[in-house]
Design goal:
The protein is an alpha+beta fold and 617 residues long. The chain has four domains: 220 residues, Nucleotidyltransferase, domain 5 (2-Layer Sandwich), CATH 3.30.420; 164 residues, Nucleotidyltransferase, domain 5 (2-Layer Sandwich), CATH 3.30.420.40; 110 residues, Substrate Binding Domain Of DNAk, Chain A, domain 1 (Sandwich), CATH 2.60.34; 87 residues, Substrate Binding Domain Of Dnak, Chain:A, Domain 2, CATH 1.20.1270. It is built from 14 helices and 27 strands. The strands form seven sheets. Strands 1, 2, 3, 4, 11 and 12 form a six-stranded mixed beta sheet that branches. The chain has a five-stranded mixed beta sheet with strand order 15-14-13-18-19, with helices on both faces. A four-stranded antiparallel beta sheet has the order 21-20-23-24, with no helix packed on it. A hairpin with a 2-residue loop joins β2 and β3. It binds adenosine monophosphate (AMP). Adenosine monophosphate binds next to α6 and α7.
Length: 617
């Protein structure tokens, strides 16, 4: 089967072209590709002429409109803090509420302009979304890669932490798109790290892998299970503010204890102390003792001293590992491989502690700063069709869902879900005695089905007569490994069922998928407003329908006055619906509810009593 050669996102044949792997990190980012040398394929990180592979994930917006990314931007962190953005990854897909308690940690201004749910960053009088800021970094990586490879780079695999939710993953994908990259796959960082070591490349292999990732400012550990080429995240745990920066801080405090007369009021001294602390730390990864100076004064730190200083932090990471193991329902001895990621795993105490906890040798031969990008490149190589032994699991390029009341799109399988995939949801009937239910399947990101692509529809017939809301219709979406969607609907009380096959990706070109995503971003605000209107209208229409049913049944027991009042409210609700004014519809529905409630309750009581009497007879 030609599965490998088909791009499931577009249905088109994939040509051999370069697909890069990108590690879009909190502190640093980098690009890697797979090289072929004498028949052997292996991943390498792209290296600038200065030898560096890492690009600091920092963006500076100059007053003249110029944008700096990477080292140039990092150099401005101290001189131009308000216009220099770092750690944007911490803001991806987050609302202001999510990051509010962290806002004090950023030197730049994180804001919520009230109209959008997602957070923005204010620079001067301009607002930037984390997606736009990440896109700046990605654009820089793209152009560096193009420069080094001397070929256009338009396709990429980008990594994200395993704990990223769907919104954060979408945001990352959108950032790629904005940077002119077709993001073929979003891969979990721990999965990429395992792939870089070739773990999980064999079809028949089943293994449990722990990935320990300790960077500059964040720590996380993931427990993965690989079976048949499928990576499953069993558990993740971590601390979003724990890393090498903490080691630098406590080491800086130690240096200050050795030289208490250092003038910490001088920014240059503070800066020198911080930089020296980091240098001492790095040196102690390879040496037992460091002897040098800070601001012209002698200092001396042994590895033992350093270990004692950082011990509490290392202990915390081990606690996280134990929690992750517990969440995964396994013990340390069940782990077959431990992969080390992040610059801070070079610290000997860290290595020794992790080795001791899991009781096995570590996978740490690759550069821990590059290993995630290398794995992303391996994944990219598989997607490019160069590694045919590997099972290819792809993702759905657009969301799949069905039409619900008022023409709203109800998503069952969100875009970027990996396939095969299955999702189900229960629906019910809207009308008394309703014997059929139309199931219409749509693909797209907009809130109203009218703006999305209709893929198929069918009628579930033969639902036995019952009051509205009682039937239980379960709709199940199943996408198999070939990207074929099977939609089935079953009324659970009666067992009436029907199934159809749909081919969701057929006929959509890359450009069309792109356009649909772009539309969904452009119309996000409109869509929210329209969804609110549709929901208000649906509720009002239901209210009118229930009232009509009520009048038909119990109208005879109402006074003339009550009938006139009800009618007046009905007219008001209809007028509000016709005017398409969400707030007016809400107000009119609510007013009708309040006005009719007293006699509705009285009549219900009376009806109930009558029914009880009837039962007693
Ligand atoms: P990352 O976020 O993965 O780039 O990790 C960067 C962190 O690794 C920073 O805190 C660095 O100071 C730290 N780091 C880099 N090299 C070393 C080293 N040789 N020994 C100890 N820590 C290091």
């Amino acid at each position: 089967m030609a599965k490998v050669a088909i791009n499931l996102a577009t249905g088109s044949l994939q040509e051999k072209e370069i697909i890069v792997g990108i590690d879009l990190g909190t502190t640093n980012s980098l690009v890697a590709i797979v090289r072929e040398d004498e028949g052997r394929r292996y991943p390498v990180a792209l290296r600038e002429t200065d030898g560096y592979t890492l690009v600091p994930s920092v963006v500076n917006f100059g007053k003249q409109g110029e944008v700096h990314v990477g080292n140039e931007a990092r150099a401005r962190l101290l001189t131009d803090p308000e216009r220099t953005i770092y750690s944007v990854k911490r803001l991806m897909g987050k609302s202001y509420g999510d990051v509010q308690q962290d806002a004090g940690r950023f030197a730049y201004q994180v804001i919520d302009d009230d109209t959008e749910t997602l957070v923005k960053v204010a620079i001067g009088n301009k607002f930037y979304s984390p997606i736009e800021l990440s896109a700046q970094i990605l654009q820089e990586l793209k152009s560096r890669a193009e420069h080094l490879l001397k070929t256009p780079v338009t396709k990429a695999v980008i990594t994200v932490p395993a704990y990223f939710n769907d919104t954060q993953r979408q945001a990352t994908r959108d950032a790629g798109k904005l940077a002119g990259l077709d993001v073929l796959r979003i891969v979990n960082e721990p999965t990429a790290a395992a792939l870089a070591y070739g773990l999980g490349m064999k079809q028949d292999e089943e293994r449990i892998i722990a990935v320990y990732d300790l960077g500059g400012g964040t720590f996380d550990v993931s427990i993965l299970r690989i079976a048949g080429g499928i990576f499953e995240v069993l558990a993740t745990h971590g601390d979003t503010y724990l890393g090498g920066d903490d080691f630098d801080r406590v080491l800086g405090e130690e240096l200050l204890r050795q030289q208490p007369s250092l003038d910490m009021k001088q920014a240059a001294v503070v800066q020198a102390l911080r930089l020296t602390a980091e240098a001492v730390k790095k040196a102690l990864s390879d040496n037992a003792v460091y002897e040098g100076e800070v601001a012209g004064r002698p200092i001396r730190v042994t590895r033992e001293q350093f270990d004692a200083l950082i011990q509490p932090f290392v202990a915390r990471t081990l606690d996280s590992c134990r929690s992750a193991l517990k969440d995964a329902g396994i013990q340390a001895k069940d782990v077959n491989a431990v992969v080390m990621v992040g610059g801070s795993t070079r610290v000997p105490l860290v290595k020794d502690s992790v080795r001791a906890l899991f009781g096995r040798e570590l996978f740490d031969a690759l550069n821990p700063d590059e290993v995630v990008a290398l794995g992303a490149a391996v994944q990219a190589d598989i997607l490019a069709g160069n590694n045919k032994d590997m099972l290819l699991l792809d993702v759905t390029p657009l969301s799949l869902g069905i039409e619900t009341m008022g023409g709203l799109m109800d998503v069952l399988i969100p875009r970027n879900s990996k396939i095969p995939s299955k999702a189900g949801r229960q629906y019910t009937t809207q009308k008394d005695g309703q014997s059929a239910m139309a199931i219409s399947v749509f693909q797209g990101e907009r809130d109203l089905v009218a703006d999305n692509r209709k893929l198929a529809s069918f009628n579930l017939k033969g639902i036995p007569a019952m009051p509205a809301g009682l039937a239980k219709v379960e709709v199940v979406f199943l996408i198999d490994a070939d990207g074929i969607l099977k939609v089935s609907a079953k009324e659970l009380r009666s067992g009436v069922a029907q199934t159809i096959d749909v081919q969701p990706q057929y006929g959509l070109t890359d450009a069309q998928v792109e356009q649909m995503l772009l539309d969904s971003m452009l119309h996000a605000k409109d869509d929210i407003a329209r969804r609110a209107l549709v929901e208000a209208r649906t509720e009002a229409e239901q209210m009118l329908e229930v009232t009509q049913r009520f009048l038909n049944k119990h109208g005879a027991m109402m006074s003339e006055e009550e009938r006139v009042l009800t009618h007046a409210h009905e007219t008001a609700v209809r007028a509000a619906i016709a005017a398409e004014d969400k707030d007016a519809i809400h107000a009119a529905t609510e007013a009708m509810n309040v006005a009719t409630k007293p006699f509705a309750e009285r009549l219900m009581d009376a009806a109930l009593k009558a029914a009880m009497k009837g039962m007693q007879v």
